[in-house]
Amino acid sequence: MKKRTKLSDPAVVLGGIATVAAGGFGLVTSRVTRHRTWLSDYKRRRRLPSLGPRGKMIARASGEVAQEHTIIPLTAIASARLWQKDHKGAAIALAAASGSAIGASFLFDYIMPHRFAPPGRRDPFEPSYPSGHALRASTFLLAAGYLFAREDLVGKRAAAVGTAALVTALGTDRLLLDRHWTTDVVAGWLG
Q1: What pTM was computed for the model?
Q2: Could you give the CA distance from residue 132 to residue 158 in angstroms, rounded to a whole number?
Q3: What is the mean pLDDT of the chain?
């Protein structure tokens, strides 16, 4: 007799989350491609607070966390910790998730719709959709938070709250520095 899968099974839950995120990513991409987001992006941009020198310094520093040269060593350290604690499957899953996000970030620069970036971006012709910072940071943080909590290496509540706060901060900094439109960051999170 075939075993029935429960809706509370982690594989089903994660599959559902991935499906919803992929659908959301497709919807946002469709709207961006058809130029249906520029007015709402512009309105949201105008409502953002301006940062002072200290705020800009903090936002720039937090942006470094989402760069490949930071994500790769963080992934290596976290994966090594999981491996050391004899959670080899989790270590491999974290490395695969981070590597996939980095690869997808580069791939998206070539295949996704290009549009003018906000004025705060150094090179207005450099692709801004989706935000590679948001994509890489959210993938690493969500995967690490989930895997460390699942393996009982950190508390579930601490992992959920800490991950949510960091993912939000590491996308919002791109908006506050005027480097990405809101839809760029949202698509990065969904990716």
Answers
A1: 0.85
A2: 26
A3: 86
